[in-house]
Design goal:
mainly alpha, Na+/H+ antiporter like fold, two-stranded antiparallel ribbon, 73% helix, Na+/solute_symporter_sf, membrane, Mem_transp_PIN-like, Auxin_eff_plant, 370 residues, transmembrane
Length: 370
C-alpha cells in the first residue's frame, strides 16, 4: 500500500509549481501588474532563454548510451497504436476526420514532460523517474513534435499552397517554346512548370515541406537545445569529457529559472484567456479522457508488449498522463486547428493533473504491493 509519506513527497514537489502558476495568473488578472505586451515579453524570455537552457541542462547531462530503449520503444509503439485507432475512426466513423485525428493525437501523446514531469516523477521514483522523463522529452522534441509540425504543414499546404510555403519554390506560367534535339514537343505554352518543390498536382514535395519544417524548428530554440544537448551528451560520454565548469555554471544559472518562469508564464497565459474552458464542457471532457485515460492506456499496452516491468512500467504510464504540451497549443494556434481545444487541454489539464497523477501513483503502487 502507498503511504501518506509518499503522497506528501509528491505534493511537496508539485505544489510549488502551482504557486508559480497562481502568481502568474494573479499578476495579470487580479493585480494588473503586467499589460499584454509585457506578458509577451516575459513569454519570450521563457521561450528563448530559460526553458531552452533548462532543456539543454538536463539533456547534456544525460547518458544516451545508458538510455532505456525498451521504454522509448514502448513510447513509439503507444503512438502507433493511437495512430491506428485514429485512422480507423477517421475512416469508419461519420464523425471522424483527418483534422480531428491530428488534434486527438496531440491530446493523447504530447505532454509537458520536463517542466512538470521532472519534479513529479523525481518525487515519486527518484533519479530513475527523472532520467526516463528526460529521455522521453528529448525524443518528443526531436521526433514527435517534428512529425506534428510536418503533418500540420502538409494539411495547410493542401489548401493554401503556395502562400504557406517559405522555401525556394518557383512556378513559371506561359513559358517560351523550347526546342530540343531529343523532343519535338513544343506545346508547353500556357502550362504550369513546377521547378522546385511542386509535384504534378501542384502540391509541395516532401523535401519542400521538410525545408519549411526545418526552418520553423530552427526558429524554436527548445527544439535545437535538445539536439545540441544530445549531440554533446553523445560526444562527452563517448570520450569521457565533462562540460567546462564555466559553461556549466552559465547554463545552470538560467536553467534553474526554467520551471518557475514556465509555470509563471502559464499562469499569465491563463489570465489572458477570455474563458478558461474555451471549447465547451463536452469537448473539454472528451479532451480530458484522451489526455488522462486513452494516452496512459495505450502506453500501458505498449509497455507490456515490450516487456517493461516494475518502476519503469509505472513511470511509463504516469508520464503518459502528464499535462498537455504547451508547444502543441502553439502549433494549433499558428495553423488554426482547434486551438480552443488545445488551450483548454493545457489550462484544465494543468489544474486537474495533480489529483489525477497522485491517483495513478497510488493505484499503481497498490497494485504492485498486491
Amino acid at each position: 500500500m502507498i503511504s501518506l509519506d509518499d503522497i506528501y513527497k509528491v505534493i511537496v514537489a508539485t505544489v510549488p509549481l502551482y504557486v508559480a502558476l497562481i502568481l502568474g495568473y494573479g499578476s495579470v488578472k487580479w493585480w494588473h501588474l503586467f499589460k499584454p505586451d509585457q506578458v509577451d515579453a516575459i513569454n519570450r524570455l521563457v521561450c528563448y532563454f530559460t526553458l531552452p537552457l533548462f532543456n539543454l541542462d538536463f539533456t547534456a547531462h544525460s547518458n544516451p548510451f545508458k538510455w532505456n530503449y525498451k521504454f522509448l520503444a514502448a513510447d513509439g509503439i503507444s503512438k502507433v497504436i493511437i495512430v491506428a485507432v485514429l485512422a480507423l475512426w477517421a475512416r469508419c466513423s461519420s464523425k471522424g476526420s483527418y483534422c480531428w485525428s491530428i488534434t486527438n493525437f496531440s491530446l493523447c501523446t504530447l505532454t509537458s514532460s520536463l517542466v512538470v514531469g521532472v519534479p513529479l516523477l523525481g518525487a515519486m521514483y527518484g533519479q530513475l523517474g527523472i532520467d526516463l522523463v528526460v529521455q522521453f522529452s528529448v525524443i518528443q522534441a526531436i521526433v514527435w513534435l517534428t512529425v506534428l509540425l510536418l503533418v500540420l504543414e502538409f494539411r495547410q499546404s493542401r489548401s493554401d499552397f503556395p502562400s504557406t510555403m517559405n522555401c525556394s519554390t518557383s512556378v513559371v506560367r506561359n513559358p517560351p517554346q523550347v526546342h530540343s534535339l531529343e523532343s519535338s514537343r513544343n506545346d508547353l505554352e500556357g502550362k504550369v512548370i513546377n521547378i522546385d518543390g511542386l509535384g504534378d498536382d501542384n502540391r509541395p514535395s516532401l523535401w519542400c515541406l521538410m525545408k519549411v519544417v526545418g526552418k520553423k524548428l530552427l526558429a524554436n530554440p527548445n527544439s535545437y537545445s535538445c539536439i545540441v544537448g544530445i549531440v554533446w551528451a553523445l560526444f562527452a560520454c563517448r570520450f569521457n569529457f565533462q562540460i567546462p565548469s564555466i559553461v556549466d555554471g552559465s547554463i545552470l544559472i538560467m536553467s534553474k529559472a526554467g520551471t518557475g518562469t514556465s509555470m509563471f508564464s502559464m499562469g499569465m497565459f491563463m489570465a489572458l484567456q477570455e474563458k478558461l474552458i474555451a471549447c465547451g464542457p463536452k469537448l473539454t471532457m472528451f479532451g480530458m479522457i484522451l489526455k488522462f485515460v486513452a494516452g496512459p492506456a495505450a502506453m500501458a499496452i505498449a509497455a507490456l508488449v515490450v516487456g517493461l516491468h516494475g518502476d519503469v512500467l509505472r513511470i511509463a504510464i504516469i508520464q503518459a498522463a502528464l499535462p498537455q504540451s504547451i508547444t502543441s497549443f502553439i502549433y494549433a494556434k499558428e495553423y488554426g486547428l482547434h486551438a480552443d481545444v488545445l488551450s483548454t487541454a493545457v489550462i484544465f489539464g494543468m489544474m486537474a493533473s495533480l489529483p489525477i497523477l497522485i491517483a495513478y501513483y497510488a493505484i499503481l503502487q497498490t497494485l504492485h504491493s498486491l
